[in-house]
């Protein structure tokens, strides 16, 4: 259904005169007449009666004009909403983040988002990458940001890797291992190890680092995808936290937590990536948010 033809019908119903209606819509009388005739043919119904004295509207025409006015209002509202969305002044963002980005670069970016565009409705789901991937497939999320170590790219998704967070072993300042000269790196196993859910590739690296036997597993005493909870446990027990530096930076700066000096440094890291459905355009607000995250990370890199 052509909205222009509907508008022509509405104007003609108001003027009941082809000359005045044509002038109002910037058409010739013959062009307006062809537009009305085309609409009547499309609807298979006569909308107007033409007489020597002017134009009168038929019962079908009254019904069509009434609905046409509603459709034109809806179309104008839709255009306005799209403009607002492009300017980030309205709309919805539903996205997910893993526990590590959720504890590091996301909070300041979200604060800026709400300050700059308070009318946006934002919903964030913090979970592990596997749960977020299933929600993305179900189109419950527009995108998610997480450690994509274990994520195998397929035709359904696009993965953009953009940052690495390197990690180590951390504990409270008063921990028995602080300042200790290790004779064997497996001495750390005398204390509970805690961390977020680790990708299989990181588990394999840790298995090699600790020189475990083939039939031995690298195991955590506590696995939790909530960094805040892990920090509390670490600060109030003799547990050792396996985490990335950005996640514990505040505690390190406060002096409440420190990194263990292990016999051999291990290079473990979280591979941060943005995951979207392949071939799917992001909303303007989502694109803005992703760009701000990239900018924030670049600034942090330059500061360090």
TrEMBL record:
Q: Does the keyword Transferase apply?
A: no
User: What protein am I looking at?
Assistant: LysR family transcriptional regulator
PANTHER family recorded: HTH-TYPE TRANSCRIPTIONAL REGULATOR YBHD, LYSR FAMILY TRANSCRIPTIONAL REGULATOR
Q: Does the keyword Transcription apply?
A: yes
Q: Which InterPro entries match?
A: HTH-type_LysR_regulators, LysR_HTH_N, LysR_subst-bd, WH-like_DNA-bd_sf, WH_DNA-bd_sf
A GO cellular component annotation here is: cytosol
Family indicated by similarity: Belongs to the LysR transcriptional regulatory family.
Q: Please give one Gene Ontology molecular function term for this protein.
A: DNA binding
Keywords assigned: DNA-binding, Transcription, Transcription regulation
What taxonomic lineage is listed for the species of origin? Bacteria, Pseudomonadati, Pseudomonadota, Betaproteobacteria, Burkholderiales
Task: Enumerate the spans annotated as HTH lysR-type domain.
Answer: 1-58
> Pfam families attached here?
HTH_1, LysR_substrate
Record organism:
Undibacterium jejuense
């Amino acid at each position: 259904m052509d909205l222009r033809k509907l508008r022509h019908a509405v104007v003609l119903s108001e003027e009941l005169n082809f000359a005045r209606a044509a002038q109002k819509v910037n058409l010739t009388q013959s062009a307006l007449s062809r537009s009305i005739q085309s609409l009547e043919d499309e609807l298979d119904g006569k909308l107007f009666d033409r007489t020597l004295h002017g134009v009168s509207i038929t019962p079908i025409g009254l019904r069509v004009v009434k609905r046409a006015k509603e459709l034109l209002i809806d179309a104008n509202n839709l255009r306005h909403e799209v403009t607002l969305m492009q300017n980030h002044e309205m709309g919805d963002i539903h996205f997910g983040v893993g526990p590590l980005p959720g504890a590091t670069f996301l909070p300041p970016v979200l604060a800026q988002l709400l300050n700059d565009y308070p009318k946006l409705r934002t919903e964030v789901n913090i979970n592990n990458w596997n749960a977020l991937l299933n929600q993305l497939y179900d189109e419950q999320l527009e995108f998610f940001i997480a450690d994509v170590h274990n994520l195998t790219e397929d035709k359904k998704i696009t993965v953009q890797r953009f940052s690495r967070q390197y990690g180590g072993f951390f504990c409270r300042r008063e921990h028995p291992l602080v300042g200790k000269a290790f004779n064997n790196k497996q001495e750390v196993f005398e204390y509970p190890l805690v961390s977020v859910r680790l990708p299989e590739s990181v588990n394999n690296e840790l298995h090699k680092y600790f020189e475990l036997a083939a039939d031995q597993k690298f195991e955590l005493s506590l696995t939790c995808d909530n960094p805040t909870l892990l920090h509390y446990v670490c600060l109030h027990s003799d547990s050792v936290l396996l985490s990335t530096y950005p996640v514990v930076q505040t505690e390190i700066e406060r002096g409440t937590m420190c990194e263990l000096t292990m016999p051999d440094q291990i290079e473990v890291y979280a591979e941060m990536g943005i995951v979207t459905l392949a071939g799917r355009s992001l909303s303007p607000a989502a694109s803005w948010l992703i760009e701000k995250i990239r900018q924030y990370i670049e600034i942090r890199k330059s500061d360090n």
